[in-house]
Amino acid sequence: MKLPPIAIISILFLSLLVLVIIYRRNRWWSETDQLRVNLINGQQPIQPKVYDSKEIEGLPDPAQRFFKTVLQEGQAIITKVEFSQHGQFNMNEMEDKWHKFNATQLVVTQRQGFDWDAKIQMMPFVNVFVHDTYLLGEGHLQASLIGLFTVAKMHNIPELNQGELLRFLAESVWYPTSLLPSQGVIWEAIDQHSSRATLTDGKTTASVVFQFDTEGLITSMRAEARCYRVIGDKLTFMPWVGKFGEYSDHNGMRIPLEGEVGWEHPEGARLYFKGKITKISYEFAS
User: Fold this and answer.
1) N or C, which end of the chain is more exposed by having fewer CB within 10 Å?
2) pTM above 0.70, yes or no
3) How far apart are CA 181 and CA 47, in angstroms?
């Protein structure tokens, strides 16, 4: 049976589309590999190599309780972290439309940096690929529909750089030795249940207020202003908030496995991320 010309054209078009998608997906993986090579190549020597509880003397009470709870004396300082996540992501600003995602993330602690490589399923066989990266002081955000169509791209503007350093600082609950004063974090007292942590990397400074429970575990965080949207030359900033839970012991440390993040609108918080770590591994100073 001979196929009509329109059927032949359709088959050829679909075959070409599949080949293009495979090519772009491979390119995306190659770009991920290169970003992570650059992160590792940018690592710097780290000091001290182990945690000494004397360095937390004089910190605000909540911060002291935190370190006493999540670290043990002599804990090796983290140099690199790799983890896998799954969860839900909401890309709609006006209503809750959650989509499943899977992601991997590489973090290096000196010089501070990370790459979050995520695949968000918008519908069956239609994914958005996302890189959210902080590398050598520069932020990079890229989102691509099915690996073909760029839907967002920003690189190395001061507001983005500050937002990515904020993310590094807030997520330090997963690599808690990075919150130590010896690793560059300055702690300020607020009250018995909260303290402000500030980190500077080059020209960029980020501050996060952490909330602690009675045991000393970090339960939530808030940044007063993070870049929310960039349209041309117009920038919008909003408070950025998050919660952490399901603490577990890993390599002698206590870390949360679950987290959720969102924007604090005047009418209340609107979440855009709900995720859980499914696998995590560390490298330490030696």
Assistant:
1) N
2) yes
3) 11
